[in-house]
Amino acid sequence: MEIHRYEKLWTAAALLLIVGFIATVTYGALGPGVTMVDDSGGTIDSGSLDETQFGDPGVTQTGENQYEVHVVARQFLFQPGTGSPIRVPANSEVTFYITSADVVHGFEVAGTNVNVMAVPGQVSEVTVRFDEPAQYGIVCHEYCGAAHHTMAGQLVVVPEDEYSAEGS
Amino acid sequence: MAYVDDFPTDARIVRWNLLVAFTALGIGGLFGMIQALHRTDVFRGFVSSADYYSVLTGHGVLLALFFTIFALCGLFTWGVTKSLDRPLPSARFTMAWFGFMFVGALTATVTILGGLVPSMPFNADVLYTFYAPMQAHPAFYTGLVLFIVGTWMAGFDWFRTYWRWRGDNPGERIPLQTFMVLVTMLMWYISSAGVAVEVLFFLLPWSLGIIESVDPLLTRTLFWYFGHPVVYFWLMPAYFIWYTVLPKLAGGRLFSDPLARVVFVLFLLLSTPVGFHHQYTDPGIPEGFKFIAMTNTMFLLLPSFLTAFTVVASIEHGARQRGGSGRLSWLRKLPWDEPAFAGCALAGLMFAAGGFSGIINAGMNINYLVHNTLWVPGHFHLTVGTASALTFMAIGYWLFPQITGKRLRLRSVATVQPYIWFVGMTLMSNAMHRAGLAGIPRRTAEPQYDAVTFQGVVGGVSEMRLQIAIGGVFLFFGLMLFLLVIFATWLGGSRTAPLRVNGTLPTPLSGPEHSPKILDNLRLWTAIAIVLIVLAYGLPLSAMLADGLFAPGSPPIPV
């Protein structure tokens, strides 16, 4: 098979670029440690969430600067998040456990890397660092029914001293 | 002699396929404009926000499945019969597959449109991805099954035409167009098995109440097993045109037949074991398998890079044949006023941009920034929405005279139409990409929330909205012009004047005699493709099945 010299060069450059792309993704995983949501959250019976930690979802402190947040997504709200904002302190490491009580939803904290699917029967586990106080919007970004566009919430990162003063 | 004179029966089936394809394009395009105006809040008078999702489902299914695949069937029937120089063996069987596809598509479409009419007892507001446990009316799933079975029969029709040709021509190389059709169909058989299992074994019996629950993650995974290769099912007919017809339109000939074959074989190997890249942010799938899908996806760039080279080289060759010279000034010698050429060339150009935004999606952890945002439709309106759609429209200008025997009418309208599409898509798509970077979600009627502010990285949100709305209107206008030209040619033209176009395709600069024989060994490539799929999917799928076929289960949630 004859391959033109320019085409050989082009193919070599394309392969180099491809390997380069794979390298950047690998660096993101190993260097800054951006991990993918995976099967670590386990499975769950979406029909009986009440018997699990999702029965009373919300924020729990698990270590000095460590928190867990259980969130239930359902048509058309996040519990917590929609009725009352999710509140966590600045300078904390927060692990979200997110599941769905009905259909597939999305959990996107707008303007951040927090962007996962909430699939009934599965628990999505993501760990995030919040360094600074801020207010974020939470959006359901997977179509979930006729009022999908109303499904949103809030995440508030409050200053550390304010958070402990509230005692929450 | 035009194609219609040589193959009257096949020309009819090509016409019918293209008629259905372009009708679906017209309806789906209208829906697209309604969405562009609605979600940007420019005009919300067409439908309520609740009905927006019926329109969105129609837009996705009519365009991504019916428009593209009917167009493929038309083009592939033309390519097989022409390159093998023999008709499809049985007109009755051909009508049967067309009938299956048409009845299936019509059933699914009517069910979707039922969502817009409150008195209708059926709907399918489940979008193009129909994720369980949202449930559509059983007619929707039944329609999809009929449609897919029809495509399988169409593939069989092309294969057996090839087998008969092989019987008469032992030892000859498979003609390039037929080779492309066969390889594409092998990919389609392997990948559409996923959605067939999803619908036949899970969603359809579940919608009929025969089984109580389905596993949402499993059905979603089966969908995406099919959901990435299907994008190549949209794209490969465009590649088929770019490789075999575009060089002629540019005034030259294909640069390399062997590399064209290599590219199609690479698509067969790599199109399917990448589906998890649509599920990077899904729970329940181990990170390692997402990584495998990511590397496979990146290598899937290779055939597209090779295509970029060959197609540009072929076009340049054409331009130089027409007297072009210089490093870039040969570009001016290209027939930019020929709508078939201009449309294909602009489609290829936009595909390059779409390819690069696709690399961001493919970048596993980088994808967190854009997953399910408006970036994603921004991306695929460049790929399926332009690389495929504009190519199919452009080639319509060239092919319609040949399958009807009538000269193209309204040539001047046809000449500007690809440029209108190009401008409209530039406006809409760039703004969608930027809106995605700001975190604005896709698939929503009203991406405006009280408690959420989206910060544009480049430009402001209201400017993006305006560009999306104006772009959407341009695209719809371009689409109407296209339909006007095609239907005017079809219905209004006469068969008196000799055609200005002919279907003779020049031989490549480097022909099939230079391609290694092994490239035509379809069994070998199919076997390797299956091994790659087992490596990518075997373990995670068996983990999902380990707790039972229907567990963790979800009962149906009607929409």
Describe the fold and architecture:
The complex is a heterodimer of chains A (168) and B (559). Chain A contains two helices and ten strands; from the N terminus they run H-E-E-E-E-E-E-E-E-E-E-H. Chain A has helices spanning 5-30, 160-166, and strands at residues 58-61, 66-74, 77-79, 86-89, 92-100, 105-109, 115-118, 124-130, 134-139, 152-158. In chain A, strands 1, 2, 3, 5 and 8 form a five-stranded mixed beta sheet that branches. A five-stranded mixed beta sheet of chain A has the order 4-10-9-6-7, with helices on one face. In chain A, strand 6 (105-109) and strand 7 form a beta hairpin. Chain A is globular. Chain B has helices spanning 3-6, 8-39, 52-84, 91-113, 138-168, 176-207, 216-227, 229-244, 246-249, 257-270, 287-299, 301-321, 339-362, 375-404, 411-437, 461-492, 522-546, and strands spanning 134-135, 557-558. The mean pLDDT of chain B is 96. Classes of the chains: A alpha+beta (168), B mainly alpha (559). At the A-B interface, helix 1, strand 7, strand 9 and strand 10 of A face helix 7, helix 11 and helix 12 of B.
